[in-house]
From TrEMBL:
Coiled coil: none annotated. It comes from Triticum turgidum subsp. durum. The chain crosses the membrane at residues 31-56, 77-101, 107-129, 136-158, 164-184. Belongs to the HAK/KUP transporter (TC 2.A.72.3) family. This is Potassium transporter.
Amino acid sequence: MGQAAYLSKHHDFYSNSQVGFYIAVPDKVRWPVLVLAILASVVGSQAIISGTFSIINQSQSLSCFPRVKVVHTSEKIHGQIYIPEINWLLMILCIAVTVGFRDTKHMGNASVITVMLVTTFLTSLVIMVCWHKPPLLALGFLLFFGSVEALYFSASLIKFLEGAWLPILLALILMAVMLVWHITTIKKYEFDLQNKVTLEWLLALGDKLGMVRVPGIGLVYTDLTSGVPANFSRFVTNLPAFHKVLVFVCVKSVPVPYVFPAERYLVGRVGPPGHRSYRCIVRYGYRDVHQDVDSFETELIESLAMFIKLNASYRCSEVSQSEQLEEWEPGLTVIGSNTLRDHASYDLQDSVQHSAASVPAADSPGGTGLESNSSKQVRFFIDSLVVSPEADKQVAEELEALAAAREAGTAFILGHSHVQCKPGSSVVKKLTVVGYNFLRRNCRGPDVVLRVPPASLLEVGMVYVL
């Protein structure tokens, strides 16, 4: 307001040695104001950097941006993150803008007031969608604030060719990257849905000549929440063997900031109990920190053990073959709540009962279920008051099989995808696929994002024809 008052009275401030901001400041306080302006620019730049990191991280969690490295810089303050690739990109853009414009006047024109206008439009949507207010209230908010901001925006349009085109160009490039990644990711998921394998095919593999169940646990990562993914069929076709304990793991990012640990794991069974195949959906919020592979593997096995015990307490002792077909993949169960932990507990005694199974595990902060021996183990035991003797024996065998598979080792099976266009596709679709393949080759792979150890990684090549 002070600058506007000065400029309304003095119209001859243009010169090569004077800047409109500093000429409006008295000579006695010019240097303190210069220091204050520098500090304000530092605060503004840090706000832009932090906001960019947060938006990129949330967009990546919602599959709207290529995978980049996210470093959590604080163990106490959640959400304090640093993204090296984005930081380097911002530095390069700042240097390019400074070298390209070489004039503070043109650099000032490069910052347009569109942020306030976009925020007003989004706030009007929040009023209707999130706050469930009448549309007339949202429209009144938009007209009242949007009209004022539209005046500022129209005034800045005359500066478009002098530098204001730069943020608009950067926004268009960023939007194109997000659209290419998000649309192609959705198409890949639809391809997986259309080409998934039936459960009958999976259950028939054990009867085929030459098919071998090798010791260990096989974690097959997939985006599907039901059925058998196509990359597993490709793996079995080329290598006629799979692990004795098979777990289809689906890591999902849900549109909430945090997911409570008690609600993180959803576990279900794929096939009858004797097949030793399970499905686990792991849910993370867009501000959750992904676990390291040791703690994730330990919690996953604990969740499987608790599910086996809980499932036995509700499963009928005798089920006909036709009923078993309907129960081969029932609904998933949330593992980790207090109710489930009452049904599935840990044996802290040194002696192992006949119905106990020992599973090696990494150290946990709470120390629950850990022995003092050099090979730390988690012991699962069965409460005989909950299940019948027949179910008790079945659960003991299933837990022992899980423990033996855990001791044999864990293999992580991931799909290595390559996207191709169908013959006769449009130019826009071809450019989208080319852009996606370029981004996929130059961003972090799923094995790095999921923190899979290279020694236990098995990648299965998959060609997606979209």
